[in-house]
Amino acid sequence: MKTTTLCFLVQKDKILLAMKKRGFGAGRWNGCGGKVQEGESVEDAAVREIFEEIGVNVNGRDLRDMGYLDLSNESNPAWGNVSMFF
């Protein structure tokens, strides 16, 4: 099972979304995020993924934990889990 992050950058009443280019959800608007690397916390992974995907530096202390999803589907019952942040 893979562990991933999903982050939505919010400023006042606006949310920054990115177009998913590949993999699950390709061609759709979404937040930034991706896989947590070995030895990395979910917060560190979120900060890294935001920078890699859109070039924005985020202070990990500013992330607000918004929940956790445990995802599965019929073809892959243990697809993964997602830590979500604003």
CATH class: Alpha Beta
Q: Give the CA-based shape.
A: globular
Q: Give me the CATH architecture, please.
A: Alpha-Beta Complex
Total count of strands: 7
In total, the number of domains comes to 1
CATH superfamily: Nucleoside Triphosphate Pyrophosphohydrolase
Which descriptors apply to this entry?
Nucleoside Triphosphate Pyrophosphohydrolase; alpha+beta; 1 helix; 3-stranded mixed sheet; two-stranded antiparallel ribbon; 41% strand; single chain; 86 residues
How is this structure best described in words?
This protein is α+β, with helices and mostly antiparallel strands. It has one helix at residues 42-54; strands spanning 2-7, 9-11, 14-16, 18-19, 29-30, 65-73, 76-85. The chain has a single domain, classed as Alpha-Beta Complex (Nucleoside Triphosphate Pyrophosphohydrolase). It is 15% helix and 41% strand. It has a three-stranded mixed beta sheet with strand order 1-7-6. Strands 2-3 form a two-stranded antiparallel ribbon. It has a two-stranded antiparallel ribbon with strand order 4-5. Strand 6 and strand 7 (76-85) form a beta hairpin.
Summarize the structure.
The chain has 86 residues and is of the alpha+beta class. It has one helix at 42-54, and strands at residues 2-7, 9-11, 14-16, 18-19, 29-30, 65-73, 76-85.
Write the layout of secondary structure elements.
Layout: E1 2-7, E2 9-11, E3 14-16, E4 18-19, E5 29-30, H1 42-54, E6 65-73, E7 76-85
